[in-house]
Amino acid sequence: xxxxxxxxxxxxxxxxxxxxxxxxxxxxxxxxxxxxxxxxxxxxxxxxxxxxxxxxxxxxxxxxxxxxxxxxxxxxxxxxxxxxxxxxxxxxxxxxxxxxxxxxxxxxxxxxxxxxxxxxxxxxxxxxxxxxxxxxxxxxxxxxxxxxxxxxxxxxxxxxxxxxxxxxxxxxxxxxxxxxxxxxxxxxxxxxxxxxxxxxxxxxxxxxxxxxxxxxxxxxxxxxxxxxxxxxxxxxxxxxxxxxxxxxxxxxxxxxxxxxxxxxxxxxxxxxxxxxxxxxxxxxxxxxxxxxxxxxxxxxxxxxxxxxxxxxxxxxxxxxxxxxxxxxxxxxxxxxxxxxxxxxxxxxxxxxxxxxxxxxxxxxxxxxxxxxxxxxxxxxxxxxxxxxxxxxxxxxxxxxxxxxxxxxxxxxxxxxxxxxxxxxxxxxxxxxxxxxxxxxxxxxxxxxxxxxxxxxxxxxxxxxxxxxxxxxxxxxxxxxxxxxxxxxxxxxxxxxxxxxxxxxxxxxxxxxxxxxxxxxxxxxxxxxxxxxxxxxxxxxxxxxxxxxxxxxxxxxxxxxxxxxxxxxxxxxxxxxxxxxxxxxxxxxxxxxxxxxxxxxxxxxxxxxxxx
Length: 611
What we know:
This protein is α+β, with helices and mostly antiparallel strands.
């Protein structure tokens, strides 16, 4: 690999930053299944938070991945992420790390290796996305292959070693494994034709639909019997297992903003206005500072604060007045509304006899409790915890004139506490302490808390009476489906049958004379049904099909008409359809394969002992 050897000897710009950003996203997002990044960087600690087939996942590694993803999602400002979103991020990182270890295990089992020549070929002919998207290799925001090849063929500025190692040890082994799994996926001409029909060909059908209306409800009054319900309960007792449940009492202090917090936010807004009037780009600052969630609907393409066009009265009064009193190019603000402080830029104005419109952008800074406010509440709640430990929880709450609340039952995996939001640290406290113990001060986005462990309900089973109605509804639903199917199969129907006459003789049947739709759409009465799509794909005009399962019962359909295939359109689209089907099936194949690995893996999860 002479070229890469030459690259190593001539370096000025080091690309570790590019690689690390991509590696982190791969470990928790999985370009082709992810990678065991802890092994790459050699970070191993003593605390095991879980394992996959006896291969450990260490707390330090897991926590590092979670922190990296939170920092990536918030542009290195974790305080912008709500507690609930942090818990969600932690769960996502866990699931993907499980996949990473399973994939790594399969790469080892299949002895997948990558040669130097393969690395060089990929770098020259098929550069990965993380390289294509790097500014070094772009012109006007687009990947510039000529610029990229210039760096490749004259490597005097870049240290390619981290990229080379990553390609050889992670990227390409994952890619090869995925290709191996997807080799069995193929697309036939019939597959392409059927997909085209689903999307572009109209079918008109006549429908006879047997639903639960055909069942005599009086005949179901005593079904299922008590004996049948009890038998089902005893046969499925494991489904009604109740985990150990813990209950706590708690007091809380809401985190409220004050005039100092509002003033601080206003000063921050005024500082941004100064920077804007000094020539900084509004869109760039908006993407960096705005707290308007609509700006990040597509995280890859933030909107730069753009609000588009709006008319008088569409915005809150203060915002409306400021926007419609300004001129094109003006920077207005800070304007305060119930959402916080707004900095408004007027992009364009339309004026006509009927109405005025403004096209504007804005930066929203919400008023949040500052450090002083939180420190004060932290001190108050911490002092309460100490005094309650000496004087008793209820007595101290009474002395401090605090209302005592009670949690609903918490299991070890609980994240939320009633309507207080996520307080995972408090749940962890509950399962590591005994009744009567008092917690330190805990905090989430909205409150400070102090808890007292109250009681423990040991692991048990739900009683028959607790689940009786649930069992009854299930058995009754199964029975109704069975009865509908039985009625449908007793009807003698062929291509010459008169659906309308059958419906007249059976007024509880639903009859639709004509219903027209594409196969990926919905037909009257029967709605959407994969069984119906499959049957109609290979049908002919005049054919009667059924009974076909539907969401509500069983249906017979007669094909009244099928639109002709537009051959020119089909010929034009078949290659793109083939590609789309292939990618979709490969993704399904890969996901199913991963799922089968997980189903057969020995996965241990100790996260809830740490968080």
